[in-house]
Design a protein that fits this description.
Elements: H1 26-38, H2 43-53, H3 61-78, E1 79-80, H4 83-104, H5 109-119, H6 125-132, H7 140-161, H8 165-168, H9 174-196, H10 201-211, H11 222-242, H12 245-254, H13 262-278, E2 294-295, H14 298-319, H15 332-339, H16 341-359, E3 363-365, E4 371-373, H17 375-392, E5 410-417, H18 428-442, E6 455-460, E7 465-472, H19 475-479, H20 483-500, E8 505-511, E9 515-518, H21 520-525, H22 536-549, E10 554-561, E11 567-569, E12 575-577, H23 583-598, E13 602-607, H24 612-625, E14 628-630, H25 637-651
Parallel strand pairs: 1-2, 7-8, 7-10, 10-13, 13-14
Antiparallel strand pairs: 3-4, 5-6, 8-9, 11-12
Helix pairs in contact: 1-2, 1-17, 3-14, 4-5, 4-7, 6-12, 7-14, 9-10, 9-13, 11-13, 11-14, 15-16, 17-20, 20-25, 22-23
């Protein structure tokens, strides 16, 4: 017996982020944060900047906010609030015309008197409707038209407060009006009892059992009922605030004619007052300017005001500027209503980026509560910086790449996956093991050996180096655009030493008015400050201390600067600044160069800029220190420093 064919159906995905989409790109996100941090931003502000601007695949919060404001502006440019007043005026004119036509066919004095009444009607719409409310119409058509005015006012006023009520009361009967009046009376009793603090659970159940047809939202308790009513009532109040004083006065007078029963308007006013007391946090005082050509009725205008309120709330949520703001605060259902499903996907992906950065250990809280990059994140930034630097280097003397761990080195006992350009020997045992395990998982049809199986044996140079990288952090480095290249250079060199030359000892030294030793995380987060002084003397003192702590290592000193020494350290520890530099500053600095030379240090100076005085000074340093001078561009600084370090490794 054959099985019936399986039937499948396909439809659009409505579950938020597409499960078939690739995962968020944490690498590019972290690189973007790293760039901001190295330019002086805090990790928190860098993360906020990433969320604001987004990524190549994901719109940021700024773009989503821009689209919200664009939609808000379109609503206000398209509509105006005169719809109900214009419609009442039109119906009033028609009723008066119909009555005049009926009176003109009569030849009685009563008909002439009634014509005079028509002529003496107030010019304002509300006054005319109020005066005609007690008029005994001769024309049946006019009577029905005037009744349309009353029903229109009643349905519009109810639509303002109860969504969908206008359609429900399309064919209004006296029984319908009585049901509405009774519902409003019961509702006001319920709200008053809740305001007094009474237990209203049973009263609420009775109310919903009798009047639930008026509430399609189906609130589950009195608080949900109040929330829904208060939001709509506040929107109605904002709509009134947006009208002119004359329009508000007309509507207040016309509301007494709703369904021909003034008790309806009075009950609505009482309900609004109670809701305002129960939910004072709603926006009751806002207003908006509508300047379009499409008129809106009271219900439609209130819905438009509610939509504007929703747009404002979404903009606040996307702005994330309030205390304790989180991306999880964004109302995704409202966002989809306003901007479509793709906006929801973008918001979810931004939230996922933030969540995974924390979950994968890229961001952590410091002891003072601030956000900072973790060591894992710093390694990632160093890897990126090194890759960028290596791409600027050119292989020499037949080498395939210059980032190798070193030929003719000693095995470290560790292996790693092969990468393009590696020249280390393969680890045969590990490679074969990887291939066997892969084929066991994939099946015998898979290749005997795949590139992914390859592992290389890591080696390190037989000679060990003590490296001091001294970087200028004076204000001119920030001012002339050399701040970020300097940080990238330090990150790249640190990552190279930490991953490929682990036996080398690297010390990072910053120098402005004073010098100090820092770790790579502190350097990456260092902000540029206005401080005069380039104290190379103090930096070389710290470099010499590092070299003396590693007497068995080959000493290497690398200096990155864009200015001649203008400060030196006195014996009491005070820094003395003077520009132009004094002979005392130059003498103290060169004396420390001589001390490093006696330690056998190789001193290379990377000169940024075209300062003739700096050129003359570094030439003296090179001659006395037996080193070299390199004048790279800011973009070429990293390649120059790393290349010089690798060159010193090859010489040894």
């Amino acid at each position: 017996m054959s099985r019936p064919p399986r039937r499948y159906s396909y439809r659009a995905w409505h579950g938020g982020a597409d499960p078939l989409e690739p995962p968020v790109d944490l690498r590019s996100a972290l690189d973007a944060i790293g760039r901001e941090v190295m330019e002086g931003a805090s990790p928190r502000s860098a993360l906020e900047e990433l969320l604001r601007t987004g990524t190549r695949e994901t719109s940021g919060l700024d773009e989503l906010t821009r689209r919200l404001w664009q939609r808000r502006s379109e609503l206000q440019r398209r509509h105006n609030l005169d719809g109900t007043l214009n419609e009442v005026r039109r119906l009033l004119d028609r009723a008066v015309s119909q009555e005049r036509q009926a009176l003109s066919a009569e030849r009685s004095e009563d008909a002439r008197f009634r014509e005079m009444q028509m002529d003496a009607l107030p010019t304002d719409t509300a006054g005319a409707v109020s005066e005609l409310s007690q008029y005994d119409w001769r024309s049946q058509d006019a009577r029905e038209t005037f009744e349309e005015i009353r029903n229109l006012l009643g349905s519009e006023l109810l639509e303002q407060r109860f969504q969908g009520m206008k359609q429900a009361l399309e064919q209004t009967t006296p029984e319908d009006v009585e049901r509405v009046r009774r519902m409003l009376d019961d509702l006001n009793d319920l709200l008053a009892a809740h305001a007094r603090g009474d237990d209203t659970r049973e009263q609420f159940e009775r109310f919903m059992a009798e009047h639930g047809e008026f509430f399609p939202e189906q609130p589950r308790n009195v608080d949900e009922l109040i929330d829904a009513l208060a939001e709509r009532s506040a929107a109605a109040q904002r709509m009134l605030n947006s009208m002119s004083e004359q329009q508000r006065a007309e509507l207040a007078q016309l509301s007494q004619q709703a369904f021909g029963d003034p008790r309806i308007g009075q009950a609505l006013q009482q309900m609004d007052a109670q809701l305002r007391g129960l939910r004072p946090g709603e926006n009751w005082s806002g207003r908006a300017r509508f300047r379009g050509d499409e008129p809106l009725g009271l219900g439609e205008a209130t819905a438009a005001m509610a939509e504007l309120g929703e747009l404002d709330r979404l903009a606040e949520q996307l702005g994330q500027s309030y205390p304790g703001a989180r991306l999880e605060d964004i109302d995704l259902e409202a966002l989809e209503r306003q901007l479509g499903p793709q906006a929801v996907v973008d918001a979810q992906r931004l939230s996922e980026i933030e969540r995974q950065l924390r979950q994968h250990g890229m961001l952590e809280r410091a002891s003072d509560g601030s956000l900072r990059l973790t060591p894992r994140a710093m390694r990632r930034l160093g890897e990126t910086a090194l890759r960028s630097v290596i791409s600027g280097l050119r292989s020499r003397r037949g080498e395939r790449d210059t980032d190798r761990a070193g030929a003719a080195g000693e095995p470290t006992g560790t292996t790693r996956p092969w990468e393009f350009g590696d020249s280390e020997p393969w680890d045969s045992g590990r490679t074969v093991r990887n291939a066997v395990l892969r084929r066991a998982a994939e099946g015998p049809s898979s290749p005997m050996l795949d590139i992914a199986d390859l592992e290389v044996a890591e080696t390190e140079q037989r000679s060990r180096a003590a490296v001091a990288l001294c970087v200028d952090t004076s204000w001119s480095m920030v001012q002339d655009g050399r701040w970020v290249p300097m940080k990238r250079t330090a990150l790249a060199l640190h990552h190279l030493v930490a991953t490929r030359y682990r036996s080398d000892a690297l010390q990072l030294v910053t120098f402005g008015r004073y010098a100090s030793t820092v770790d790579v995380g502190e350097l990456a987060a260092l902000e540029g400050t206005w401080e005069q002084g380039t104290n190379l003397h103090h930096a070389l003192l710290l470099a010499g201390r590092h070299l003396r702590r590693n007497p068995d290592a080959q000493p290497v000193v690398l200096v990155v600067t864009d200015g001649e020494p203008t400060a030196h350290l006195e014996p009491d520890g005070e820094a003395v600044f003077q520009y132009p530099p004094t002979p005392r500053t130059l003498s103290a600095t060169l004396s420390e160069v001589d001390s490093l030379s006696r330690l056998g240090a190789s001193l290379s100076v990377f000169m940024l800029g075209d300062d003739p005085r700096l050129e003359a000074f570094v030439d003296i340093v090179a001659r006395r220190g037996g080193g070299r001078v390199v004048a790279p561009t800011p973009d070429g600084l990293g390649a120059a420093v790393v290349g010089d370090y690798l060159r010193s490794k090859r010489r040894r």
